[in-house]
């Protein structure tokens, strides 16, 4: 997050907050025109951001900024549990400028190289050694070394030096280049700096639409395009369910397995700690035996291949069901009381038949009522292709990899027929009733079929 200027005729700074998708594309989260750049102004913006979060008690794990002390203070107040990293690019640029100011040409390159070794130190022992080398080289340049230590290292080393940030889940974001790029693209849309709020809003909206189109296209490639390096069965569990950006990082890390093996000390586990992807020592346990990488070791960020928000039901909102209850039984359950409300008797009556064969219309299958009952009673996944298309998961059992999936289609506006689909076909959205009334332990259904549900979301504009 960061400010940009010269975007409007009111000369107000524009504060822009961006995020990164699993395909490593930037998207805008929020914009705010600010009266001034004081801590209280930043606090107001961050409080508004907090209100936008789907999970009200959550907070960003990592926030990346420049060394704006007012903004850093606001982050500490509003998001005290978030880790505030500082942009390495701008820090190195400032140190490079000071290097030129204090030193003659012959020494500049040497000193700057030593500084970069300090920044990239992989652990605290190496950091101490690199810093000592820099201090020794700067014996005659006390002004420079004092600037480096007083301005950056002493107060902020945990925010940008590798020894500390390699333990932080930053997903590769160590500079504010993403937000700087977003600033530039928005200004291209604005064309000038004399527009009013309406003109600025139109530019922001157009920019968001462009971002969304690019992001959806990048998600779609994850389903349909397989890079040559990822053809191996080693990636079989991940293809189509994990972004290609994540697969590339894993493929690069796999090259280290030869000399790392399963030794954690040699590995350093940076990919595991900073990206939550399997690092070399983990891959070393799978590769020799040809064991495919399990999808469970991949962080959910890299498995999110849609911009849709998954509605979640908290543990307090879930329903505890002691046993499976068939609707045709006389006793009532809390689950079906909630699901059908005052229609429970009518639904039960529709299932009562005197004999097999032709039945009156009031006994015909109706959705979504019967979809929930079929999925629950038979513990299957039911996919209904009609208007609308829906997926029904069981409401009281956990995901099973060997579950049967049945697909039915609505024909001639009057009856349902079974539809035979190809293996791995996309699944339409899960019913809202399932999300609202399911047992808390059933979340695994969404995780188990995340790739196929996301695939449908990508196809939705095409199908429409």
Automatic annotation (TrEMBL):
One Pfam family cited in the UniProt record for this chain: MULE
Top-rank lineage group of the source organism: Eukaryota
Domain MULE transposase: 3-94
Protein name: MULE transposase domain-containing protein
